[in-house]
Amino acid sequence: MVNPVKAIQNLYFETVEEMKKCTWPTKKELVRSTGVVLTSLAILTVMVMIFDWAFQSAVRLIAGMN
Question: What is this structure's pTM?
Answer without folding.
Answer: 0.63
